[in-house]
Amino acid sequence: MVTRFIRPKNLSQKMMRVIFSIYLGVTLLITSMQFLTEYMKTQDSILNELKQLEETIRGPISTSLWQYNQNQVNSLIAGILKLPIIQGVDIFDKDGKNTIYERIYSPASAPLSIFATTSDLKWSLNGESVLLGSLVLYSSSEVILDRVLFGFSLMAITEIIKLSVLFWLFVWAFDRYLATPLKELMSQVNEVQMNQDVSKRINLSNMEYNELIELQNHMNSMLSAIEKNRERLLEDEQAKRSWLEDAVAKRTEELQISNEKLEKLAKNDSLTGILNRGSFFEAARHLLILCKRQKSPASFILMDLDNFKMVNDTYGHFSGDKVLVHFADTIHDLLRESDLFGRLGGEEFGIFLSDTGMDEAFHLADKLRKAISHATIEVDGKTITYTVSIGIESSELEDYSIDELFKRADLKLYGAKEKGRDYVER
Ligand SMILES: Nc1nc2c(ncn2[C@@H]2O[C@H](COP(=O)(O)OP(=O)(O)OP(=O)(O)O)[C@@H](O)[C@H]2O)c(=O)[nH]1
């Protein structure tokens, strides 16, 4: 109990320490005052007792002194000294000389305070009073304390028992009604904090409605507010995220479309929409390698519009462009999906045919030539006709590279032009 009092472990014990320290202080003050009053009262009562004793023994001592009976005086003094309130006895003769000096304590262990009663010893002779000396009876503070302390020790024991019982009763009451619910409240709040779970609610067990329940309700309202706030923030964040995702997806799609356009622009001829020279040769080179690996033939058809300068000069550059577009569309419609078709520059076009030998290529080229020479186009109300010369080379005969195929096809084309144009040279 003492250790718990000095080093309290919980709130109720701390409160008890404060309350009981105050209680102890007040009790000590009141008890000290009571003790002082009791001490004074006891001292008065002992003085009275000494006086009564003097009254009683003055006669026999005076008689013994008158009769010079020292033995009787001594035995009377010895009897007096046995009384518990007597600490010493002095007898003085009529001249003030100390004839008897008796103390029940040694000089070394003298009591703190000594008090005494003095009375004259007289003898009556023929109606006259003769002074024989004086009698002094001593008592001390120890006698008073002996009496007072007995009563007070009983009081102190009662007080200690009362204090201990009260202390534990108060500790129990504070524990039951304050410390334990507070501990429970703290542990539940701590759990919410540790798990970051604001959906949880504080629920104190076995509690009547009081300030703690009010505190619990306030905390729960606070948790509800936090939970709502968090949900709103989450919704906002989700909305922002999906908006961001949509924006990114849209942007990615736009970028993809732009890339595709850029790629197409880089690969295709801007006027006719078919492959440009660079991408045509790149693809043709790749296809030729595949044909060689599969040991199958490939053919290169090189086409050049005849007298195109004249078309431009006669109908204008714009009409010339229309002719180029018409040519590309017409040829494109007559080719297979797998045939490679590109504009190699100006009015020069190329076709690369995989798995196709010279005969087949010639057959196709002539079909194309005829289709062009029979075609007419209307531009600004004017009818334009034009022809194409074609040179063909095939990899069937030699292991040509794409550049060699092209060069040789160009020579054939030159031959076709030489032969009067609108002609296919193989
Ligand atoms: N309208 C138009 N003309 C072009 C384009 N590219 C080249 N040309 C013209 O095509 C003409 C080609 O002329 P030439 O090389 O002399 O050949 P050609 O007149 O067709 O005569 P041959 O090839 O010998 O039959 C030039 O006048 C160029 O300006 C183009 O994109 N649009």
Quick take:
The chain has helices at 2-6, 11-66, 70-81, 141-195, 211-267, 277-293, 308-315, 317-334, 358-373, 402-418, and strands at residues 88-93, 98-103, 114-125, 128-140, 298-305, 340-345, 348-354, 377-379, 382-384, 388-394, 424-425.
Give the ordered list of helices and strands: HHHEEEEHHHEHHEEHEEEHE
- Overall shape: it is rod-shaped
What is the domain tally?
Answer: 3
Beta-strand content estimate: 15-25%
Cα(first) to Cα(last) distance is 122 Å
- How many β strands by DSSP? 11
Domain HAMP: 176-231
Keywords: Membrane, Transmembrane, Transmembrane helix
GO molecular function, one term: diguanylate cyclase activity
Pfam families: GGDEF
Characterization of this structure:
Pfam families: GGDEF (PF00990). InterPro entries: Diguanylate_Cyclase, GGDEF_dom, HAMP_dom, Nucleotide_cyclase, Rev_trsase/Diguanyl_cyclase. Keywords: Membrane, Transmembrane, Transmembrane helix. One of its GO terms (biological process) is signal transduction. With 426 residues, the protein is of the alpha+beta class. The protein is built from ten helices and eleven strands. The strands form three sheets. Strands 6-7-5-10-11 form a five-stranded mixed beta sheet. The chain has a four-stranded antiparallel beta sheet with strand order 2-1-4-3. Helix 2 runs antiparallel to helix 3, helix 2 runs antiparallel to helix 4 and helix 7 crosses helix 8. It is rod-shaped, with a radius of gyration of 69 Å. Guanosine-5'-triphosphate (GTP) binds next to strand 5, helix 7 and helix 8.
